[in-house]
Every structure is written in C-alpha cells, then in structure tokens.
Design a protein that fits this description.
- By secondary structure, the protein is of the alpha+beta class.
- It has one domain: 3-Layer(aba) Sandwich (Aminopeptidase).
- Helices cover 37% and strands 25% of the residues.
- Strands 1-2-3-4-6-5 form a six-stranded mixed β-sheet.
- Helix 1 packs across helix 2.
C-alpha cells in the first residue's frame, strides 16, 4: 500500500515523530484509526490512534511543513475526535511533552491527568505495545532522547455515554 509507505517514511524522517513501519501503518489504516487530509494529491495532515483496552490513544499528529499554520491540525483533530466519539471507545488519552499540543487538545476537552487515572488494563496494553520488537526501530531513531518520553504528561478526555 503506497499510502502506508508514505506515512511510514514521514514518521521516519520527521524529527519528533515516533517511527511506524509500513506494516504498523497498514494495520492502523485497516482498523480505520486514522484521519488523513490531502490537498492537490499531496498528504497535508494526518492523525493516527490505537485502541488500548477500550480506550483510544492518540499517538501521531502531523501537518506537512507547507500546510502548517493554516488550521490543518485542528481539522484532523476535530475529525478524529468525531470519528472516535461515534465508536464504542470509552475514553481518549494522549501523552505529550509539547505544551502547544496539550493546549490544542485542551480545546477539545482533554485535560491533564495523573498517570494513575489510566486503568491497569490500559497500562498493560501500553507496555505490551511499547516493549514489542516492532517498536525498537523507533527507539533507535530517537536514541537516548527516548528517555525524555518519561517527562510526558498524560491528558484524558472522559467520554460520557448515555448508557452509563
């Protein structure tokens, strides 16, 4: 799939993104866990997420350099949120060290939370994913900088389902 390779290459080249292999991207796309915006046949922006024990983790948001500052991040963010809210997801979360990203998500209702706010089942899914050999190329890409991830803050949007 050409789109999966294109997105994988972006995650390989873009300094602050975690690397995702084409196979990982194909799986994300097959599950419908992505919002992709193209302009003039060119990938302008994308948002990727994964399911973690009934919760949704946003892990990749990207806007191509020539489209930055034009509201594309907000567009993909809003579209992703709508898509997830229409699903059976219980809650949405993300980890970030970037104050601007946290601020953008704050406008969507996501709030800073203690790490203890995530259920154990979610943490087990996160650990399983993070320790997978498929993630190692991303860790090699970032080298010792990967340890800075420990300073990331957790942000959660609690979804209030009418059935509950």
């Amino acid at each position: 799939m050409d789109l999966a390779r294109e997105i994988s290459e972006i995650t390989r080249q873009e300094k602050f993104l975690l690397y995702h292999s084409p196979r990982e991207i194909e799986n994300i796309l097959a599950k419908g866990n992505a919002v992709i915006l193209k302009e003039g046949g060119k990938l302008a922006a994308l948002m990727l997420w994964s399911d973690r024990a009934g919760w949704v983790e946003f892990h990749t948001g990207y806007v191509a350099p020539e489209f930055r500052g034009q509201g594309y991040y907000k567009k993909i963010q809003e579209e992703a949120r709508k898509k997830i809210l229409a699903s059976s997801a219980r809650n949405i979360f993300l980890f970030t060290r970037v104050p601007a990203v946290a601020n953008l998500w704050r406008h969507q209702g996501i709030r800073a939370s203690a790490y203890s706010a995530l259920p154990k089942a979610v943490w087990l899914e996160i650990l399983k994913h993070r320790l997978s050999p498929a993630r190692w190329p991303s860790y090699f890409k970032h080298g010792l900088n990967i340890f800075k991830a420990a300073s990331s803050s957790l942000h959660i949007l609690e979804i209030k389902n009418p059935e509950n």
